[in-house]
Amino acid sequence: MNKEFIVPTGKIIKEYLEENNISQKELCAKLGMSERHISNLLNGKTRITEEFAINLELVLPKVPASYWLNYEAKYRECLAREEKELELRKINLEEISKRFCFKEVFANLELTLYEQAKEMLKLLKISDFNNFDATYSNLEVNFMEDGGKIEPIAIWLNLCESEIEIQNLDLTDVKYDCNELKKALDKFKLIATNSDIKLSMNSCRKLCNKLGIYLVICEAITNSKVRGALSSYNGHPAIFLSGRFKTHDNIWFAFIHEIAHLLYDYDKKNTIVSFEQLKNDENENEKEITANTFARDFFINPEDFRKFVSKSNFTEKSIREFAKSQIVLPGIVVARLQHDKYIQYGQLAYLK
């Protein structure tokens, strides 16, 4: 109902009374109610009740009680929305805008600051910005060095959730089975040999969907520092990737990292957020250490890698040959060598 045209229910009742030549005093007599109470009802000062609507139906038989009750509900909803709007306009929206990244989230939308505030509340699924801390206090965040702020992290998680049904197939008739995922791990590794990131991740998503898993790639929000997350949606596991650094090795390592969380740490009630790798892996928590180890060993056999680095022969040719023996792209090997400090960051980066 457009608030520009909505009026108190009592005003509409007055029009019907006039059409039927019934005065306010006569209505009081017919309903057995005081003139003061009827006056308050007709002037919108008192809510129309079910009892009044049913009694009015007997006085005006052509108009069902449901008509008055439905109109009254919409009228009261409109008043509540106007009150909420006034409440939002009273707070410092400029500060709220900065805290909740309005410019970044709504960059391509022509929305007023007030409209952006309303949309952000919907995105975060809270009724008031003061409720944010309490709502997201239980978010299981595995902070890594220089971890992000909680606001952009929460925003990113909700943006990812809003993309689930857009990026994925309907999984209503598909059941997630951990054992089936384990059987499909080799398929993921083969898909990762496609050097085209977009094509390989599209194939990865299709396989995930067949296994009852959602996969969303959504660019990170500034200061979130997120690499990936494992959540749940409609009873299915959901993997979110930020695509930070946008290189094949980073995106695939992040994906397998979340697969490890899915295999070892999955809990439908909790969301696990993973951040950029620590400069010192010793400071990582146990879950992250396990997931990182799984991802490293998933792509490169640890014993084979030990033998490879023992030769200290890190040429393009040797790396390509070793990568071929591990059924991975050379960039995966380069990334591992860089991370483990066998070569400098930037060295042989063209192979990534």
UniProtKB/TrEMBL annotation:
One Gene Ontology molecular-function label: DNA binding
Stretches assigned to the HTH cro/C1-type domain: 13-68
Domain of life: Bacteria
Gene3D superfamilies referenced in this protein's UniProt entry, alphabetically: 1.10.10.2910, lambda repressor-like DNA-binding domains
Family, as annotated: Belongs to the short-chain fatty acyl-CoA assimilation regulator (ScfR) family.
Name of this protein: Helix-turn-helix domain-containing protein
Taxonomic lineage from the root: Bacteria, Bacillati, Bacillota, Clostridia, Peptostreptococcales
